[in-house]
Specification:
It is built from 10 helices and 20 strands. By secondary structure, it is an alpha+beta fold. It has a 6-stranded antiparallel beta barrel with strand order 1-2-3-6-5-4. The radius of gyration is 36 Å and the shape is globular.
Length: about 375
C-alpha cells in the first residue's frame, strides 16, 4: 500500500527503478535486525596453526637432570671454646700459654649444621664435594620428590675435593646422565643446578668461560685439579651440584666461587676427572696421588720462543731430592711426553703411578740430563 501511494502518477520506468531501490533498502533493514555479531578473525583457521610452544633447551635440560639433584644436610659436633657470655676480658690466644692461666670456658660441644648439593650418578650413590661432608657426624640427603634418606660417606678425597655418599634406602633412583668434559669448548652453554642458601632446585645460566684453570692460579695450593671456569652463578650451598651442558648432561661438579674483587667467577671439577676419582673411592676407599716432591714454574723461553717448565722448589728427602733433581732444572720430557706446561708433568707423573720409575729428560744449564725417579703417594711424601 505504501509503495502504491509513493509511486502513483510516476512513469513506468521510474516506478521500476524506485521499486528495486526500496526493495533493497527494506531487505537490508531486515538483515540488520536479525544479524548476530561475528568475530573478524577466523579462529578455526588459527586452530590448525597453534602458537609455537616448544620448550627452551634450559627447561629440557633441567627436566632430564633435575630429579637427580639432591640436598645434603650435614651435622658436625665441634668443641665450644668460647668464653662464658659474662666474661668481659679480651684474651690474647697466647696469653694463656705464656702464663698458664685458665679461664672459664663453656666445654659443652656444639652442633654445627651445614648444607650442600650433590647428584645421584649410580644406583643409591651420590657424588659431591669433600668439603661438604668432611667431619660430618650425620648426613640427610633429600631428593627433589620429597624423599629423604640417611647417607654414609664411603670415600672422600680432600686433595681433589670429591666424595661419594651411599644412600641408606631403596630406590628407584633418578640418575644423572654424565657427559664428556673433554668435548666442551669455551663459549658453550653452562647450566648450574643446586641449593644455594637452602633454596632448593635453583637454576642459573651462563657460558663456559675457560678450561683447565689450575687451582694454583686461584691461590689454592693444597688441592690438585684443573677446573672449568663459568659465569653461571654459583653460591654457598651450590657446592657439589652439577654443571650441565645444553643437553642436560653433567659436565662438571660445582666447587668454587671467587668472592670479593673479581666476584662472579665460578669453577667446577670436570666430570671426566670426577668419574675417575669416584671409581677409585668406591674400589679402594681412597685415591692415590703420585708425587715426586717438586713445585713447578711456567715461564716463557725467549730463546726458544715457547713455554718451558722449571723446577722452583724441591721437598727435602723427597723422591726428586733423592734422584738428584735440582732447582732451575728445565723439564723437557716425562716418559716420552713432551712438556709444555706444568700440568703436563703432573698428568704424566699421575699416569705413571707409584709402582714404577718415571724417566725425566732435563736441561740443566747447557747440558741434557736423564733422571729416573719413583713417585710416592702424597700422604707418604708428607711423612718423609
Amino acid at each position: 500500500m505504501i509503495l502504491h501511494i509513493l509511486l502513483k502518477g510516476k512513469p513506468l520506468t521510474f516506478k521500476f527503478k524506485h521499486l528495486a531501490f526500496l526493495s533493497t533498502l527494506i531487505f537490508s533493514v531486515f538483515l540488520k535486525q536479525n544479524a548476530t555479531s561475528a568475530p573478524i578473525i577466523n579462529h578455526n583457521y588459527f586452530a590448525t596453526y597453534p602458537v609455537n610452544s616448544k620448550k627452551s633447551f634450559i627447561t629440557s635440560a633441567i627436566e632430564k637432570a633435575g630429579p637427580s639433584v639432591v640436598t645434603i644436610d650435614t651435622q658436625r659436633i665441634v668443641p665450644n671454646n668460647n668464653f662464658q657470655k659474662d666474661s668481659r676480658i679480651l684474651i690474647d690466644p697466647y696469653f694463656d700459654r705464656l702464663f698458664g692461666f685458665r679461664f672459664p670456658q663453656n666445654s659443652v660441644p656444639k652442633l654445627e649444621q651445614g648444607q650442600g648439593s650433590g647428584f645421584i650418578f649410580k644406583d643409591g650413590l651420590v657424588i659431591t664435594n669433600a668439603h661438604v661432608v668432611n667431619n660430618s657426624e650425620k648426613l640427610i640427603v633429600g631428593l627433589s620428590d620429597g624423599r629423604k634418606f640417611k647417607g654414609k660417606v664411603v670415600g672422600q678425597d680432600l686433595i681433589t675435593d670429591l666424595a661419594v655418599i651411599k644412600l641408606e634406602g631403596r630406590g628407584p633412583w633418578p640418575k644423572a646422565i654424565l657427559g664428556n668434559s673433554n668435548n666442551i669448548k669455551v663459549g658453550d652453554w653452562a647450566i648450574a643446578v643446586g641449593n644455594p642458601y637452602g633454596l632448593e632446585n635453583t637454576v642459573t645460566l651462563g657460558i663456559i668461560s675457560n678450561l683447565s684453570r689450575n687451582v694454583r692460579e686461584l691461590g689454592i695450593y693444597d688441592k690438585k685439579f684443573d677446573l672449568i671456569q663459568t659465569d653461571a652463578a654459583i653460591n654457598p650451598g651450590n657446592s657439589g651440584g652439577p654443571l650441565l651442558n645444553n643437553n642436560g648432561e653433567v659436565i662438571g661438579i660445582n666447587t668454587l666461587i671467587r668472592s670479593g674483587p673479581g666476584a662472579g667467577l665460578s669453577f667446577a671439577i670436570p666430570i671426566n676427572k670426577a668419574k675417575k676419582i669416584a671409581d677409585e673411592l668406591l674400589l679402594y676407599g681412597k685415591v692415590i696421588h703420585p708425587m715426586i716432591g717438586i713445585s713447578l714454574i711456567n715461564e716463557n723461553s725467549y730463546d726458544l720462543n715457547k713455554n718451558q717448565v722449571k723446577v722452583g722448589y724441591i721437598v727435602p728427602n723427597s723422591p726428586a731430592a733423592k734422584a738428584g733433581i735440582l732447582i732451575d732444572d728445565i723439564i723437557l720430557k716425562v716418559d716420552q711426553i713432551t712438556i709444555n706446561d706444568s700440568s703436563d708433568v703432573v698428568d704424566a707423573i699421575s699416569k705413571n703411578g707409584i709402582n714404577k720409575f718415571s724417566k725425566l729428560l732435563i736441561r740443566r744449564k747447557n747440558k741434557i740430563v736423564k733422571i729416573n725417579v719413583k713417585p710416592i703417594d702424597i700422604r707418604n711424601l708428607k711423612n718423609n
